[in-house]
């Protein structure tokens, strides 16, 4: 069914970079045989799933949507991919994205832009645009994305699906091609909250291969789906409904809050005073980490290599000049500059201090409240080409998602209505560290 749907719509949506049809159909057959033998166990048994192309899959091309990895076939599976095998899902293929997960519109893909299934003149969001669009277009039921500064929640919001960024450490990053290691998390994108909880259940947990994965018990997330939000205390940061947030986005959030109020929850306005510095701190820190992480793409170890270099230095230089796209180069230059001696204290170190202040903002609010609610993005999906030449406006689109990554807390985007132009709007629900259950409980109350 998935492949039929893909053949019908993917020419327009452009969500997939690589399909794994032969292996997927074989796996489906094997699972079918198991079913007949009465051997099934997993909740996700036989479910078709798409995997973002920065998550490595053994023998299945993994490009990070970059020319520099055009012909790269990994020799191992990421931990989450192994876990999907154990959960008996069927991997359909690899999903398009912004190159190395740097972007908010998918226009930075080194191959082709993904389009929003609700209106193909609009972007699907990014960087997990393929992950969100493939689920929204009915090509797969589930997908995995990654979120460094909003890359799961923002495209989920733009495409009208459910996307969760787990707590930093909840899901193993082993086999996720690193962008900014202190911020990256893999998470589930699905059509509804229940599916989302099942998929997180399958991929969560400590992993000896990732020393930043947390040794904390993984609860049964679906037990939280009770519909009961009585007595729940909600904080609504005034910074999240302020300047730059359109009227229809604000109205949809207030409407969702009144639904929760009717169900017995209460809400109050709070402040996350350091939010205004989050964007600057994020772009410094994430670019610094990226400049170090992307040093490994040197034309020797992986993927693309320039032709006929005259010496080793030229091999590096030409491979990287030809292989990386403009946005990736911009981040590497920014990060290299911020980390260079003489500038380190003024930029990188200061940004780390700001990050601590932002984390403390969240901790203070969570002393008195169970969840924080606001919009996922200031506007609905914008048009292709609208912001592509203006990086700063593009970066500003992440203003509501980035603080969550800097604090390391979990956050979800769930659909909360349509804009006047008929495009989806997303509600963001943010929880305490390792309290995805409460997020799911609140999100599920809308279904
Ligand atoms: N849009 C943000 C960026 O370009 C976030 C990306 C992400 O979360 N991977 O960095």
TrEMBL record:
Superkingdom per UniProt = Bacteria
UniProt-listed Gene3D superfamilies: Amidase signature (AS) domain
Key words, A-Z: ATP-binding, Ligase, Nucleotide-binding, Protein biosynthesis
Chemical reaction(s) catalysed:
L-glutamyl-tRNA(Gln) + L-glutamine + ATP + H2O = L-glutaminyl-tRNA(Gln) + L-glutamate + ADP + phosphate + H(+)
Active site: residue positions: 52 (charge relay system), 127 (charge relay system), 151 (acyl-ester intermediate)
EC no. given is 6.3.5.7
State a single Pfam family of this protein. Amidase
- Matches recorded under InterPro entries: Amidase, Amidase_CS, Amidase_dom, AS_sf, GatA
Q: Name one GO molecular function term.
A: glutaminyl-tRNA synthase (glutamine-hydrolyzing) activity
Q: Where is the Amidase domain?
A: 1-439
Entry function: Allows the formation of correctly charged Gln-tRNA(Gln) through the transamidation of misacylated Glu-tRNA(Gln) in organisms which lack glutaminyl-tRNA synthetase. The reaction takes place in the presence of glutamine and ATP through an activated gamma-phospho-Glu-tRNA(Gln).
Query: Which protein family is named in the record?
Result: Belongs to the amidase family. GatA subfamily.
Provide the assembly information.
Answer: Heterotrimer of A, B and C subunits.
Query: Which PANTHER family does UniProt cross-reference here?
Result: GLUTAMYL-TRNA(GLN) AMIDOTRANSFERASE SUBUNIT A, TRANSAMIDASE
Record-given protein name: Glutamyl-tRNA(Gln) amidotransferase subunit A
